[in-house]
Automatic annotation (TrEMBL):
Keyword RNA-binding (UniProt): no
Full protein name: Flagellar hook protein FlgE
PANTHER family (alphabetical): FLAGELLAR HOOK PROTEIN FLGE, FLAGELLAR PROTEIN
Record-stated family: Belongs to the flagella basal body rod proteins family.
Organism: Xanthobacter aminoxidans
Cited SUPFAM superfamilies: Flagellar hook protein flgE
Physiological role: A flexible structure which links the flagellar filament to the drive apparatus in the basal body.
Flagellar basal body rod protein N-terminal domain residues: 7-37
Length: 418
């Protein structure tokens, strides 16, 4: 074995152990960093061709790898914008230049200047705007993603278009005398009455009066007439100034189930066409009992709070307690996450070895689940890192001793030549 080969091998060994100490140092420094993934240094020997009488020393190859796919423990917080992923997915974030990156660092908060959700590294959380309906999701690209903005969000007025009304109509009620409520004349008769609130195009509340009148026995026929309460007379029940907005005949079978007349459509004054689902109506020997009464739409109202569901949907809650979906947060996955390229700020970019980004939603397609009010801790094990540091320090010292010995032998050799 040549002295130069021995020196070269010793220098290679010290360099390798220096790299190991560097990764250990980074791991220890980021043990408390949310979303940090532990770095590890892998070694392999590089052998040179050796003859039968002389050994040719080689060197050490170093490969730095990251345990990106290893899940860190969860740290629960009191902030609803702190997010953690349980599973293989990553948050999709944009850096200041607009480049999309992947991260597990979910300590997001509202940026005071833009209103966007950003993490501690200043990366902006991206998602889909669902305020106008389901988004067009590109499964293998980031088209359509927008910043999650919680500062400039306002709930606009939404006209009512659909609703549900279900009640039990008493089977033992007497058949009403003519004229019935649908005729809208003075003295019109009805059996039961309820009211619902809908919204017009400007978000004004429109109260709808629903009159239910039994018109025939065996098995049971009822008339449903809907009026705008704003047109009701100042005294008495009928006649309204206009209407009815719509009428529907409900027919029940011998068992009290609705046989026909399962919906009613009407034009809300200054609003859209409202369709009420009546499939839950029944006629049994019990008092008049409303079961379900719901109508979509809302009046314009300031936002009082935000929440994020496990499926990634961001909800805005207005001053009236009404929740509306405004964004949905997707998660990105790659085939080989440990082959992603680490970037500043606990973020990653794809490489040829990692594979391209595939996009899905939490709780769907195996991308993992989303947890609000928590962050993922670093997956660094401090005890293991300290142990690796001691071993690397010992190996570095041994290699330096070999280098020192080789230098001394080389000095002796040079003196003999002189």
């Amino acid at each position: 074995m040549s002295l130069y080969g021995m020196l070269r091998t010793s220098v290679s060994g010290m360099t390798a152990q220096s790299n190991l100490l560097g990764t250990v140092s980074d791991n220890i420094a980021n043990a408390g960093t949310a979303g940090y993934k532990r770095a590890d240094t892998q070694f392999s020997s590089l052998l040179l061709e050796t003859g039968g009488t002389e050994y040719q020393s080689g060197s050490v190859n170093t490969d730095v790898r990251y345990a990106i796919s290893q899940q860190g423990a969860l740290n629960y917080t009191s902030s609803s914008t702190d997010l953690a992923v349980q599973g293989s997915g990553f948050f999709l974030v944009n850096d200041p230049s607009g480049q999309t990156q992947l991260t597990r660092a979910g300590s997001f908060q509202v940026d005071a200047s833009t209103g966007n959700l950003v993490n501690s590294a200043g990366l902006t959380l991206m998602g889909y705007d669902v305020s106008a309906g389901d988004p067009n999701v590109v499964l293998n690209g980031t088209a359509g993603l927008v910043p999650i903005n919680l500062q400039n969000t306002k709930l606009a007025a939404t006209p009512s278009t659909e609703g549900t009304f279900a009640a039990n109509l008493p089977s033992n009620a007497a058949v009403a005398t003519s004229p019935t409520a649908g005729a809208n004349v003075a003295g019109a008769s009805f059996t039961d009455k309820s009211s619902l609130v809908a919204y017009d195009n400007l978000g004004n509340a429109v109260t709808l009066d629903l009159y239910m009148t039994k018109t025939a026995e065996n098995p049971g026929v009822w008339e449903l007439a809907v009026y705008d309460q704003a047109a009701a007379p100042a005294t008495g029940t009928f006649p309204y100034a206009s209407g009815p907005l719509s009428t529907q005949t409900l027919t029940f079978d011998a068992s009290g189930k609705l046989a026909s007349g399962g919906s009613i459509s009407l034009a809300v004054p200054n609003g859209a066409t409202l369709t009420l689902d009546l499939a839950g109506m029944s006629q049994l020997a019990a008092p008049y009992t409303p079961f379900t009464a719901s109508v979509n739409g809302n009046a314009p109202s300031p936002i009082s709070d935000f929440s994020i569901a496990k499926d990634g949907t961001v909800y805005a809650t207005d001053a009236n307690g009404r929740k509306s979906a405004i964004y949905r947060i997707p998660l990105g996955t790659v085939q080989s996450p440990d082959r992603l390229e680490p970037l500043t700020g606990n973020a990653y970019s794809t490489t040829l070895d990692s594979g391209a980004i595939q996009i899905g939603f939490p709780n769907e397609g195996g991308v993992g689940s989303l947890l609000s009010g928590a962050t993922e801790q670093s997956n660094v094990d401090m005890a293991s890192e300290l142990t690796r540091m001691i071993v690397a320090q010992r190996d570095y010292t041994a290699n330096s001793k070999v280098f020192q010995t080789g230098t001394e032998l080389l000095d002796v050799l040079m003196n003999l030549k002189r």
